[in-house]
Amino acid sequence: MASFTAIYDACVLHPAPLRDLLLRVALTNLFRARWTEEIHAEWVRSVLERRPDLTLEQLRRTRDLMDTSVPDCLVTGHEGLVDSLKLPDQNDRHVLAAAIRCQAGVIVTYNLADFPNAALDPYGVSAQHPDEFVVHLFDLSPAAVCAAVRDQRLALSRPTRSVRELLDTFLSLGLAGTVAALETMQDLL
Fold first, then answer.
1. In the chain, is it the N or the C terminus that has fewer CB atoms within a 10 Å radius of its CB?
2. Distance between CA atoms of residues 102 and 57, nearest Å
3. Pairwise CA distance, residues 137 & 148, whole Å
4. Which pLDDT score, from 0 to 100, does residue 122 have?
5. Contact 132/104 with Cβ under 8 angstroms?
6. Cα separation, 30 vs 5, whole angstroms
7. CA-CA distances (angstroms) from residue 120 to 38, 64, 80?
8. Backbone angles phi, psi at 126, to 5 degrees
9. What pLDDT is attached to residue 1?
C-alpha cells in the first residue's frame, strides 16, 4: 500500500464519471484515497439535488461499494479538530480535519479557493484540482492510469463510450491536462 494519502472532497465525487475515474485510480496503489462519512453525506445530498431521477437507496449502494472497494478509506477521529481550524468556508473544516487526522498530503477538490495555502501549509497539506491530481498520477505511472481509464470505459454499457467520447466527458469536467496526457496513449484506452 502506498504511503501518500489523498482526501477526496465531496465536489469531486458527485460527477459520476469523475468519481469513477478517481476510484479506479485509487485502486492502482499509487496513493491511498480517503474520505469521511460527512464527505459521503455531502456528495449524496448534492447528487439528489441535481438528479431527482436517482434515489437515496441507489446512492447508498454506490457509497457502500466505494467503501468496500477502496481499503481503509474512511477517516474517523477527526471531529475534535474541526472547531480549531480556520477556512474561508467554515463548512469545509471537516475536510481539512480529516486530512490532518490521516496525514494526507493533498485534498483533491474543485474548490481551491476554499482551501488556501496559508490555511493548509501549517499542516503539510495542499489542495489540488482533480485535473492536476490525475496528471501527477499519470506522470508517476502512465500505464496504471491508462489501465484505470480503459477499465472505466469498458465498464460503461448504458451507453458504451468510445475513447473519444470518454475523453470528451473528461474535458467537460475540466480535466484538460488529463485528456492531453491520455491522448498520447489512446491505443491503451
1. N
2. 29
3. 11
4. 97
5. no
6. 9
7. 20, 30, 17
8. -130, 160
9. 58
CB 17 within 8 A of CB 170: yes
Cα 55 off chain centre by: 22
Where do the domains of the chain lie? 5-130, 135-188
Contact 179, 167 (CB under 8 A): yes
Other residues' Cβ atoms within 10 Å of the Cβ of residue 104:
26
Residue segments in the chain with a per-residue pLDDT below the cut of 50 = none
Q: What angle do CA 29, 154, 33 make, to 5 degrees?
A: 25
- Cβ–Cβ < 8 Å for 132, 178: no
* CATH code of domain 5-130: 3.40.50.1010
**Sheet strand arrangement including 32-34:** 32-34, 5-8, 106-108, 126-128
Count of CB atoms situated within 10 Å of the CB of 132: 17
Task: Say how far apart CA 78 and CA 101 lie, in whole Å.
Answer: 6
Q: What is the rounded CA–CA span in Å between residue 63 and residue 67?
A: 6
* Predicted pLDDT of residue 158: 84
C-alpha–C-alpha distance, residues 81 and 64, integer Å: 26
The pLDDT, as a whole number, for residue 2 is 72
Which residues neighbour 2 within 8 Å (Cβ) at sequence distance 6 or greater? 29, 30, 31, 32
